[in-house]
Each structure stands twice: as structure tokens, then as C-alpha cells.
Amino acid sequence: xxxxxxxTATATISTGTAVLNGTAMANETLATYSDxxxxxxxxxxxxxxxxxxGEYARDRVAASALVAAGSGGPSTTAVTVGTAEGAVxxxxxxxxxxxxxxxxxxxxxxxxxxxxxxxxxxxxxxxVDRWPWGNMYEFSSAICLVAVVGWLTVLYxxxxxxxxxxxxxxxxxxxxLLPVVILMFLAGTVLYAxxxxxxxxxxxxxxxxxxxxxxxxxxxFLVAGVASALFLLRGxxxxxxxxxxxxxxxxxxxxxxxxxxxxxxxxxxFAIMTGAxxxxxxxxRFWGWDPKETVAFVAWVVYAGYLHxxxxxxxxxxxAAWVNVFGFAVMLFNLFFVNLVVAGxxxxxxxx
Amino acid sequence: xxxTTEPRTDAAGPPPRGRTALSRPxxxxxxxxxxxxxxxxxxxxxxxxxxxxxxxALLPQRSLNSGxxxxxxxxxxxxxxxxxxxxxxEVFASSWFAAVYLLLFVSLIGCLTPRTFEYAxxxxxxxxxxPRNLSRMPHHATATLDEAPDQVLEKVRGxxxxxxxxxxxxxxxxxxxxxxRGYLREAGNLVFHIxxxxxxxxxxxxxxxxxxGQVIVLTGGNQFCNTGILGYDSFKAGTRVDxxxxxxxxxxxxxxxxxxxxxxxxxSFRASIGYxxxxxxxxxxxxxxxxxxxxxxxxxxxxxxxxxxxxxxxAPVFTVTWPGGESRTVATQWRLADPNTLLSEGATKIDxxxxxxxxxRRRSQIAITGLFAxxxxxxxxVTSMYPAPLDPEAAVDVYRxxxxxxxxxxxxxFEVDQRQVASGALKKxxxxxxxxxxxxxxxxxxVIRFGDLSQWVSLQVSHDPAEKWVLVxxxxxxxxxxxxxxxxxxxxxVRLRPVSGDDGPSRTVVEIGGxxxxxxxxxxxxxxxxRAELLGGNDLHERDESGGGS
Lengths: 352, 550
Known about the structure:
By secondary structure, chain A is mainly α. Chain A has helices spanning 3-14, 28-69, 73-89, 98-128, 136-161, 165-170, 173-189, 205-234, 250-282, 291-309, 318-340. Chain A has one domain. Chain B has four domains: 2-123, no CATH class; 126-182 and 488-544, Double Stranded RNA Binding Domain (2-Layer Sandwich); 206-311 and 461-466, no CATH class; 319-450, no CATH class. Chain B is built from twelve helices and 22 strands.
């Protein structure tokens, strides 16, 4: 809390005029710029999503054409991939295909969007002089930013592998950005809360630790969940046609889902534990089966189940992917249902 | 995790031949045990646990809000009582929830014990023998170097520092190096699971030996002492707590300060308290008190107990002056009717002093009941506009007669007993809105003055002797998890074959192979690095199936 804001508020109370006075609680200018940045980031993500869709559609057409050609089969595909790689790394720069250009522009836009998105959160934090995840709008925004940054990291790392997997993975960009844009839209409209200080129970350095960990793991689980959902969508057929034709290989999707979950799970564990430590200081007990705690526990158990499923014969791929998708469904349920419908200690949504 | 699917059946041995009377039940027991400790069962139990916990979030729970549970049951006359009987409103105390997690932990222990022994064995064992055909490994490369085998071996040994290495001279004259690393992965895995068991035991111990009590204390130097259960307004204790040996300490609440934002949202709560504990108690209430600022997020931590500030409210102070000149001033806490504006409701009950005749005393008791608004809206119907006491006003009904306090039944301190009103023993004698400092006069000349405003705080005392153990195990859970998910168990082999040229064995064919023993790929990068350092770009042939990516 800014000392200034407290003293202003107190002065207002002591003089006996309880007037609603926004400027006493937050820096309106910064908050407004934060909102602008947020909306711009959302529009940019949307544009990136459309471009990714364009790339996806073109890739699909290309892939279908290859499958239709039939005779060439794998060798043709190999040649195509090779050409694409040559375009990326080769000394002679062959003209990029339109799909390639769409995809690259989409990634560039996503990076730009993420920068603006981060700016929006930083400005929000500066406007209220606290960590900018004190209500559902800010928390959802942070989750989306983590998801986008996580996705870009996955893309970057797969590119370093340098075997054409990045180009292949990139086509699913629209599927990752879709839930992000939806969540950001809901956060910016239904869940929106004006920049304001948080209630006394939330004034603790644990807000920075616990909620940061929760949003990092939440955003990463989103990326993993999308990868697993696409894995399931793709099905077991080695050759896919139609809508699914441009999806990356099964094992590439599976690998993304697993690697992201493996990093997110300890962070989620840390988030739950720091939550318990904070609850011990704020509410008098470290664990009380508050609805939010209960569903966080359920999500933890489901993700633990996913990791175990990955090591169990017969569960390794398909079923494990279902478990991962279900895990993310539980996370979403925890974000929306528990905050908005169920009353509990975590009812700080700031939504009226 | 990769070890899980390895058979654990050897320990039990082959089934006995002789068909004794015992063999059948024994076989059944053994099969049950095997089934219970298998990964598949553990997985099923995990999902059951998640499923069983869900109603705890979806249905109202007694432990959190019993009023809501009653409401829920009332609204569903058939489903409600059935769910109640099945324990759905106390999920986390129900036998079926306990059954699921106990089975899960039995399965866990059954799985952990052999794995711990296996790990201890593996930790002492040498790395496995180098496979005959290294080219079958997922990572593989061959090169011919212009160095003698001994020199290459020296280089390999230097490079494999930190690995567990075994060097074997093979009959054909080759030198085979077998290396393995990442043993800590399984250690982390075991620590994680064992710490989970510790966590459960710690939580259970806390539930058995801990207690939680709530008490309301008025500000202005009022005290509360942790001497017995009776001092509390509500007390929840583990089965091993009988309330006789509570840690003695006393709390004195001097003042309470709440600040609000202009829109009425709370900004800060702070209770100025003093405490005495241990030997200081012998000095009595006039002895030294340690001052403490009790705040949300900042409990008072004493040797065995924690004291929390949970809530607060107002206690209007009424002074009743009877016609004879006797006077009594009473402050009783009123409960919140609206937590946002702190509109409060309650009943201040007062005995007339100096009544020798018991029957007459009982006829002249007074109750002041109604609503209190810290910042009054004014007007006939009082409501509260703001939680701070900017313009306090009480809208009261005054009753006179027999409050029914002496009939042995308990009654709420926040309302008058409506049975007494119905029977005519208690009569409403006045109704008025009183601002701070205002008074009203009853028909018999008794004056009731709203003279002052006090506050109350709701404190919680928590005692959990196992709490620090829970924290220790939680940290171990996290450390174990981090270790087991970041460290990769992998093997690396080198075979050195001397090439006998014209000028002696000065050249060596170096064959290397690698295998990641865990699900997590990403060994490729390290292998590529090893290959570059050992073979230095002289590879004749390479195969790297996992794509070298990470």
C-alpha cells in the first residue's frame, strides 16, 4: 500500500465525508494505459491467431495434396521438409512459401503482443503499487501471459533442435492462442476489476510468491493441455487428412505436453505449499479444505496421475493425454467456478 | 518411474506345490497385495482420490459453513438427508474418503519398500556390462582416432568424471567402458514419496493433538486466559485433547483500529494487545504485559500456540438509570448483520441491581435489542452507509420483564428469547432511534442512554504441535519432486578396439553408445557434446534417433 493512499483515505474518513474517490486509491493514468496495452495485446494475439490459421489452412492444403498424390508418399514429404529447412538455414535463400510467411509473421506478432501484455501488467502493478495479480482479471491476465511466453519458449527450443520441428509445431499456434484470446476477453469484460488496492488479508509478500507460482503453473498447464488435446484430436492414424492434415506428429505433441507438465507440476506443488504457508499466517490453519484448496488438491492429484500414467504400460499415451486435458479442465474450473460461484476464503474475484 | 513395471514378484517366490489348507488363502492374500501395490491400482486410487475430493468443493461442508448445509438439506427433502447420511457434507471426515487415501498410502508403502531396497542395491552395484552391439542403442557413433587405446581411455575417463564408471577388458582384446549417471533421480523419487507419507502422518498427528478455539474479547483492556475450554466461545479439539493441559497464557485487548478506503473496502485491521505467558503469569494481571500489534497476516506466535485476529465488530455501551438512582453500564458485543457496512444486530441484557426479592428482580430485567449502524443513514429506518463509526446510531426495542436467563436453558446472547415474549413474561416497552449520546425514558422513569461505543475482536487460538513437521515434510516433498523430475538417469558406453597397423596399435576404433533410462528425452544434447569431445568430428557413422533436440 502506498503511504500516500492510506493517509488520503484516512483523512477522508476522519473528516467524515466518505466520498468515492478513485484517485486516492490508484494512479488512474497508469491504469488507463495498462488497459490500452491489454486491449492492444489482445487484438494482436487475435491477428496472430488469424495468420496462424492461414498458415494452417495452406499447410493443410499442401499436405492433402501430397497425400492425394499418393504415389510419392513419404519421399515427397521428405523433400518438401528439406526445402523448407533450406529456406531457413541454407546459404541460398529460396523464396518462402506463403504459409511460411504467415507463420513467421504470426510468431513475430505473438512476441509483440506478449511484450505489450507484459507492459500492461507492469503498468497495472505501478498504478496500484502492488503485485499486479490481486483479483481475477489480473490473475487471468498473468496466466495468459505465461501461456504465451511458455508457447514461444517451446517454439524457440524446438527450433534449436533444428530438424524442422519448429515449422511443424508452429502450425498449432492458433490452437494455443485461441484459449488465450478467449480467456483474455472474458477477463477484460466479465471479470474486469478497476485498479484498486487489495483487502488486508491479501497484503502480504506471499501474494507475490504464491500467486506468481500459481499463474506460472496455470499458464504452462494451458499449453500442455492444448498439446494433449491436439494429440487426442489427431488420433492414431499415421496418415491424417482433411482438417487434421497439418497437425504436427503425434510424438511431437506428446513431447510438448509431457515436458511442459513436468516443469509445471513442481511449480504447482510449490504454489499449493506456499498457499498453505500463507493460509497458516492469514486464516489460522495451513489447510482447511476451503473450496479453492480442495480443487487445487484435485488438480494436483490429477496431474500426479498424469505423470504416473506416463510410466504405466497401457496408459502411456492416449489415456495419459486424456488425464492431462482433464487436469487443465480442473484448473479452469478452479479459476471460474470456485471463484465466482462457490463462496470461500478465496472469493477475492473483485467481480460484482 | 521406469522401474515400476519391473516385476516385483520374485520376492514372494513361486507358489507352493503342496495344497495345504493354508495355501489358498495365502495365495489370495499375496495376489491381493500384489494387486494393491501395482502401479495400475495406485493410478486408479489416485483418480478415486480426486473424484472423492470433488464433492468437498461442490457441496456445502459442515466444517466450513454448517448453516449452508442445513439450508441445502432443507431445500432438498429427499436427496439432502440421503447425502447427509452418506457423509457428503463432511467429505474429509467421511469413512469413504479415508478409505481411499489409506488404501493409496498402503499401496504407496507397499511399492516404496521394495524400491528402496532395490535402490540401495543398485547404488552399490557397478554399471551394467557394455552391450555387445552398441549400434543398437538410440544414440550411437563410431570413429577411428589416431591415438593408442590407452590414450583414448585416459581421455574417456577424464571426460566421464562424475559418472559411475566400470572398465572391462573384453576377451577379444577390446576395452569396454560402461558409465551411468543420474542415480539421484530415483533417490528424489523415493524422498518425494516417503515425505508424502510423513506429511500425512504429520497432518494426522496435528489433528489428534491440536486444538482451535475462538473467543470474542471486548477492547479496552479486557482479558482472555487460555486456562480451559470454558473460556472459549467455541472450541474444536483433537481426540487426544481433553482441555486440561492447555498452554497457559493471557491476552489483554487494549484497542482495535480498522481503516477503510473511501468506498468502504477494508484497508487495515490492527488490534493492540498485550500478552503474558509462562512464569510471567504468576505476577498477575498487574504484572508486565508484552505489547503486540495483532494484524491479519501477522499472528502472535507463542511457544505452543498461535493467536489470530479473525474478526471484529461493535459493542454499543448502554447506561440504564433506574428511578431510584441505581445505574448500570453494560457493553455487549453485537454481531454483524452486514459484513460490508458493519450494520450490527444484538441484544444487551441487564439485571436491575439491588433487588433482594428474586421474583421481583426477574420481573424487572431489561433487554435493549435492535440494529446498530456505525455510519447511520439517518431517517426512521436506520441502515449503515459505511463501516467506520462516523455517525453511530442504534435503532432499539426495549423489553422489560423476565428474560428467562434463569430457567436453565441456554439462550443466544444476540437475541431475546421469543418464548418469553410470547408468554407475556417479557414486554416491549419502548422503540426509538438513538444517536450516540442520546437517551430515552421508559414509562416508569427509567432512563436508557446510548453513551459510548466499544469494539470487540474475535480471536482464534490454534495449537498444532506437528505443524513444523508438516512443513519439513512439505519441503522434502518439493525437493524430492524437483530432483526426480529434473535429473535424468542415463547410460553411456565406449568400446575401444585397437587397430593393428604396420607400425603397431597406434590407432583406435572408438564406438560410443547412449541410452536414456527415463521417459524424459533430452539426453541427445549431452550425447552430442560427448561425441564431439571424444570423437572430435571423426565420426564415420552416427545415429541419433531422438533427434538431438531437447
